[in-house]
Amino acid sequence: MKNIEIEYQGKENMLNEIFEKKILQNGMTYKGYTKSIIEEVGNTKPEILNEHDLELFEYKKLNIQRSARIEKIYDVSDELKSEIQNIKDKQIWMVITEAWCGDSAQNLPYIAKMASLNFNIELKIILRDSNLDVMDLYLTNGARSIPKLVALDENGNELFTWGPRPKAAQDLMKQWKDEGIVKPELYEKLHLWYGRNRGREIESEFLKIISMMNQVQV
């Protein structure tokens, strides 16, 4: 128990140290983040890229389309909207991500719409690869999986975490890997699941998280 307490205290101290500089000052809004991706893709000359960078470039182009589709069709359910609007205290929702991440393109637009429903919630996006010290506080089974949402109070204290994908999708990924399915079929199946699910699982998970948080804060 003592080791667990020491580990948690160390994590809390480290997060508090980087809260002001990395999250508040350098964190991007969703609009700013999206704009930066579109500008980067628009200004890139794919013919001069190496094979690895060209692959990332293609992912980014596809992810712009994925996110735009969700932004266009998604409306937060009345039940979840009510819970979000009942948040009374200031919160920062920090999302760690990268533009090439398909899971981020499929989940971040939902999170952004949720956050926009309450002026007490400030969404801040930071890039994983230039903030590995933050990322390494929130590993998933030892991996730097993204997107990762960390909700903080206005003093930088952790409220809850979510990510990198809904549990139903996470369970399916494990099942498919156990069955020997590999890339690109693995991710093709995953994105097909996202398209069919239309945000129902992420809504259900956030409804549970936020309603429980609101009950505690009453």
Layout: helices, strands, pairs:
Layout: H1 2-25, H2 30-43, H3 51-73, H4 78-85, E1 91-97, H5 102-115, E2 121-127, H6 132-135, E3 148-153, E4 158-162, H7 167-178, H8 185-197, H9 200-217
Parallel strand pairs: 1-2
Antiparallel strand pairs: 1-3, 3-4
Can you walk me through this structure?
There is one protein chain. With 218 residues, the protein is an alpha+beta fold. The chain has a single domain (2-165), classed as Glutaredoxin (3-Layer(aba) Sandwich), CATH 3.40.30.10. The protein has helices at 2-25, 30-43, 51-73, 78-85, 102-115, 132-135, 167-178, 185-197, 200-217; strands at residues 91-97, 121-127, 148-153, 158-162. α3 (51-73) runs parallel beside α5 (102-115), α4 (78-85) packs parallel to α9 and α7 (167-178) packs antiparallel against α8. It is globular, with a radius of gyration of 18 Å.
Mean pLDDT equals: 92
Number of DSSP strand runs: 4
β-strand amount: 5-15%
What proportion of the residues is helical, as a percent range?
A: 55-70%
CATH fold name: Glutaredoxin
List the keywords.
218 residues; 60% helix; four-stranded mixed beta sheet; disordered N terminus; Glutaredoxin; 9 helices; 4 strands; globular; single chain; alpha+beta
Short characterization:
The chain is of the alpha+beta class and 218 residues long. It has helices spanning 2-25, 30-43, 51-73, 78-85, 102-115, 132-135, 167-178, 185-197, 200-217, and strands spanning 91-97, 121-127, 148-153, 158-162. It has a single domain (2-165), classed as Glutaredoxin.
